[in-house]
Design goal:
Elements (H helix, E strand, L loop, with lengths): L2 E5 L4 H12 L3 E6 L12 E5 L5 H7 L5 E4 L7 H5 L4 H16 L3 E5 L13 H26 L4 E7 L1 E3 L8 E3 L9 E3 H10 L12 E3 L1
Parallel strand pairs: 1-2, 1-4, 2-3, 4-5, 5-6, 6-10, 7-9
Antiparallel strand pairs: 8-10
Pfam families: NAD_binding_10
Organism: Denitrobaculum tricleocarpae
InterPro entries: NAD(P)-bd_dom, NAD(P)-bd_dom_sf
Length: 213
């Protein structure tokens, strides 16, 4: 079992990943500015208040860690449309050299369908609304992906499609080849399950699959 650092652990995919990793027997260090508000207790859980944009917080959080899961998110609203959004690239600019300095090699990072080269797979009808609502965030996720790909880390980039509530379904499809990439739906709990499976599975090293139903 691994000692896992989850960055962005207080809500959404991050919180679901914390819960799933604990259920699978891993030790988890949950980093978030509001980590103290995580309503979860477990002997293998360490809640660490910290900021993904502060180098000292990240360096301290990496101590003794085997695997990092980066699951950052921004709140929907005005800023997503009018931006600028720089959270993903700025946090990654701090995380990558910190991991390299700490000799923590394994990084599993969540971006999304529409980031990087998956942008070309958005169909024509969806392209304009996607750009209007999510363009700022996904431009920054594209920078995030580029930084990760240029690193010396053992990385896997995970690109979920539209997120939904709901339990794990076991129906996740892993779309590796660009010709198979498409939009769709997937629950946060299925994304979390997929992320946790990557902790002990290196079959997708240096790949950026889209995951969907």
């Amino acid at each position: 079992m691994a000692h896992v650092l989850v960055i962005g652990a207080s809500k959404g995919i991050g919180l679901a990943t914390v819960k799933r990793a604990l259920a699978c027997g891993h030790r988890v260090r949950a980093l978030a500015r509001s980590a103290g508000q995580i309503r979860l207790r477990h002997e293998a859980l360490e809640k660490v208040p910290g900021d993904a944009l502060k180098a000292d917080d990240i360096a301290a959080a990496l101590d003794g860690i085997d695997v990092v899961i980066q699951a950052l998110g921004v709140r929907p609203g005005h800023n997503m449309i009018f931006g600028p959004i720089t959270l993903f690239s700025r946090a990654t600019q701090i995380l990558v050299p910190a991991m390299e300095a700490a000799a923590v090699k394994r990084l599993i990072a969540v971006t999304g369908f529409g980031a990087g080269d998956s942008k070309a797979s958005i169909n024509c009808l969806q392209r304009i609304p996607f750009r209007l609502v999510l363009g700022q965030a996904y431009d920054d996720k594209t920078l995030q992906e580029q930084m990760i790909k240029e690193s010396n880390l053992d990385w896997t980039i995970v690109r979920p499609v539209v997120l939904t509530p709901g339990p794990r379904s076991g129906r996740t499809r892993v779309l590796v080849e660009p010709e198979s990439w498409r939009n769709g739906l997937i629950s946060r709990n299925d994304v979390a399950d997929f992320l946790v499976k990557q902790i002990e599975d290196d079959s997708l090293l240096h790949q950026a699959p889209v995951i969907a139903y």
